[in-house]
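Suppose a colleague, Dr. K., hands you the sequence of a protein chain of 68 amino acids and asks what its three-dimensional shape might be. Before reaching for any lab equipment, you can write down a predicted structure in token form. Begin with the sequence itself:
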Amino acid sequence: MDGSEGVDEIAKSVRDARKQAGITQRDLADLSGVSERTIRAIETGTGNPSMAAVMAAARVLGLRVEVR
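The predicted structure, expressed as tokens, is then:
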């Protein structure tokens, strides 16, 4: 697996979990302490969000990020 496959998987997982929770990107940003722009970057697999930002969003959504 190359790096982009992992990014795509994280992006889809965060987006799906957020929608399932019924919250907006703005809500997730507020709850995780990052900007809405960062949440968009995480969900689209673009930009260069920090690992801390990804972990914060995942934590709010009850997701576990695993490094293989």
